[in-house]
Amino acid sequence: MLIEQRPSGDSEVSALVVDQQVELRTRDGGREGHVYAVDPAARYLVAVVGGEAVACGALLALDLDVAEVTRLYVRPAYRNRGLGRRMLAAIEDLAASRGHRVLRLEAGVTAPEAISLVLGAGYRPIPRFGRYVKYEASRCFEKRFDDAGEVVVLRKAATDPAVAELVTLSADEAATRYGDTRARRFPLDPRAKFVLATLGGIGAGCGAIQPIDDQTVEVKRMYVRPAYRGNGIARRTLAALEDLAAASHYLFIRLETGARQPESIRLYESAGYRPIPPYGPYVHSPLSLCYEKLVIATEPIASELG
């Protein structure tokens, strides 16, 4: 079995979501609230057996700390093989890699096997949340992951003192590396949205996204304090920015880094960014290297025999 990430527009994802909603509607006698369209902000996983997509699930960021497991579905012919549990585990791994520390989900009373699955996986009942509050037949669950010593990524304003300090430190380090403060001075859009990564309550890193056009955002002001490097903070910050871009329905994410920053180049290339020609303010910057990535791209998550 192969579990892989698919874009929301994938035809097999759409087919699985529709089949799930049709089955649920049949079970509950047409309860109001079924949504047949995929959510472009969610990250979809698909299980493939013998070349056929037979199960799906999705991770939808509710905020930088909390995400929802949704669209968990296995075709009837493939049930009782552990596929549901394996899909849930893959979604949990994806959530952890993106810095989410709390997972929530909803299941209807007409899906007792789904409720048994999530209770067996360590989820506990919670009050109905979000769009499920008005549905009496909804049962909601939550699972929290140990966050001792973990990186926490939070939304912050550009004026936040911890963010402002990190941005200043980033400019100082760039001036040292490049020998000229003007060489790496590129504008920040006032619409930029910042995140702050903390470790032990201390601001350790930051980053932002700013719009380029209605389909594309740009990563800006990525920085981690030298003393906190090597802890995965940059990767977690980048993942949070990608989730923020997905939640805002952008299709592409671009960034620029300098030729004298090999650690940044390694991070972006390992995260799936591909080189592109210089764009915008970087066209005439000889030290600039530019990259681009689909906000949600098809990529393998895990490959297992079974």
What Rg do the Cα atoms give?
A: 21 Å
Ranges where pLDDT stays below 50 over 5 or more residues in a row are 300-306
Specify the structural class. alpha+beta
Rough shape? elongated
Q: Please outline the major beta sheet.
A: 8 strands, mixed
| Strand tally | 15
DSSP strand content: 25-35%
What is the CA–CA distance across the termini?
A: 6 Å
Order of helices and strands: EHEEEHEHEEEHEEEHEHEEE
Overall average pLDDT: 88
Tell me the strand order in the biggest sheet.
6-7-5-4-3-2-1-15
| Number of helices in the DSSP assignment | 6
Please estimate the helix content: 25-40%
Structure commentary:
This protein has 306 residues and is an alpha+beta fold. It contains six helices and 15 strands. It has helices spanning 11-28, 83-97, 112-120, 161-178, 233-247, 262-270; strands at residues 2-6, 43-49, 52-61, 66-74, 102-108, 124-126, 138-144, 151-156, 193-199, 202-211, 216-224, 252-258, 274-276, 288-294, 299-303. The strands form two sheets. An eight-stranded mixed beta sheet has the order 6-7-5-4-3-2-1-15, sandwiched between helices.
